Amino acid sequence: MRFPQAIRRRLLPVLAAAMAASLLCPAAQAGAFPERPLKLLVGFTAGGGADGVARVLAEAMGRSLGQPVVVENRAGAGTTLAASLLARSAPDGYTLMLLTSTNTISPAMYKQLSYKPATDFQMVGMVARGPMLIAVPKTSGITSLAQLIEAARKEPGKLNYGAGGIGTTPHLAALVLQRDAGIRLTHIPYKGGSETAAALMGGQLDIQFGTPPSVAPIAARANLLAVTTASRTGLAQGVPAASETVKGYEVVSWYGLGGPAGLPAEVTARLSEALRGALADERLKQQLRTLGLEADPASPATAQQFYLAELKRWQEVVRSENLQPEN
């Protein structure tokens, strides 16, 4: 159908504006993200600390996004099984993973991976971080980290410690302390923090490196010498920071939210916004506190920088110590 010339002159600007809008806003054609449920991978079994954080986070983010966020547990091989699934996922924002400090430790311990940890993931933001605690029995007579270091220097290797498994964050916290303080301790592996705490109280261990929840049941019978964060924290009232004795020392347990590399900027922005909103949720904050963690609403760029720095740091520590994964 041909329109009169006068009408065509009036319609052309309208049609041009509509075409420009469609080119600038592809989401208007495809629909605003998200249009369907999202999947949140967790590299640990159901019922644990990471799983608890993931489920409360998923619920809070789901409310903001207007779509369910479904937690999927894919435990095994130090979180590398779940990470490999994430790396193979389409970069559309519908498959995410609750990343932890373990995700930056395990790649250095496994010789063969089906993904590249430095380039196959993109951080949406940080979720939380928290300290390790360094504890000794009250019967030891040691009341400060300085005293512990002095005793370790007098008899290298005599004092032993437990840290809840080879390659865990508490284990590496101990290795970094040895390096930074110039001491040598003997590691006795245990399967988890509760076993380590029991061994400390039973006299089989001299020192425990553990999360606040694992140390809490024995706190009345132990001397809490230091937290491993750079400064003191309200999660362990009155406990000094190890950096007050060993300059520059810091090891944190952390959680972040990531997706496969190549997430569109608008999708990353939408997920980051939902994450920040979730971290303001009081139920989530309380869940984090019970795990010895504090909310950490960092931006995607800051989170990416932190992730890469942790990856490089732990590769250096693991290789220098020649650590091997547990069976």
TrEMBL record:
Query: Which keywords does this Swiss-Prot/TrEMBL entry list?
Result: Signal
- As given in the record, the signal peptide range reads 1-30
**Record-linked InterPro entries:** BUG, Bug_dom1, TAT_signal
Q: Does the keyword Signal apply?
A: yes
Keyword Metal-binding in the entry? The reply is no
Pfam families annotated for this entry?
Answer: TctC (PF03401)
Domain of life (superkingdom):
Bacteria
SUPFAM superfamilies, A to Z: Periplasmic binding protein-like II
Return the similarity comment.
Answer: Belongs to the UPF0065 (bug) family.
Protein name, UniProt field: Uncharacterized protein
Species, as recorded:
Xylophilus rhododendri
Upper lineage is:
Bacteria, Pseudomonadati, Pseudomonadota, Betaproteobacteria, Burkholderiales
